[in-house]
Amino acid sequence: MSMSFLISNAYADGAAPSLGGSDPFTGLLFFVGMIAIFYFLLIRPQQKRAKEHRTMVSALAKHDEVVTSGGILAKIVEVSEQYLTIEIAPGVNVKIRRADVTTVLPKGSIKAADKE
Predict the structure, then answer these.
(1) DSSP-derived 3-state class of residue 99
(2) Runs of H (alpha helix) within the chain
(3) Cβ 88 vs Cβ 76: under 8 Å
(4) Residue 65's CB: how many other CB atoms inside 10 A?
(5) Mean pLDDT in runs of 10 for the chain (116 residues)?
């Protein structure tokens, strides 16, 4: 015995309404607007931060106090083209990539942090 008599057929009541209206350029305008929003809210600020970081990394010099991407406070001992030698404790030197420096601290920040 079939149960198809309990379920009635559903038929479409006509064409689905279009989201763009009758103008074909409305959809294109929406797409261009979304690209502009993404550019000004996501892409442009990220490019600006990357440029600031490149400028900061290129200006690193000996005796600068820095914070690495791992959160280590250190003083720069030696500078080369792609690497830095940093002192993380008296007599403990570590070599890192320049790009791993996230922040340059004001002079004397490490001594102030040691007192805390």
Answers:
(1) helix
(2) 25-38, 44-58, 109-115
(3) no
(4) 20
(5) 66 62 79 94 95 95 94 95 94 95 91 74
Please count the structural domains in the chain. 2
- DSSP 3-state assignment of 115? helix
Task: Judge if 89 and 74 occupy the same domain.
Answer: yes
> How far is it, in rounded angstroms, from Cα 66 to Cα 113?
13
The residue written with tokens 């996501």 in the block is 42
Structural domain boundaries, residue 33:
25-59
Going by the DSSP 8-state scheme, the letter that residue 100 receives in this structure is G
Task: For residue 95, give the 3-state DSSP assignment.
Answer: strand
How many of the other CB atoms lie within 10 Å of CB of 102?
14
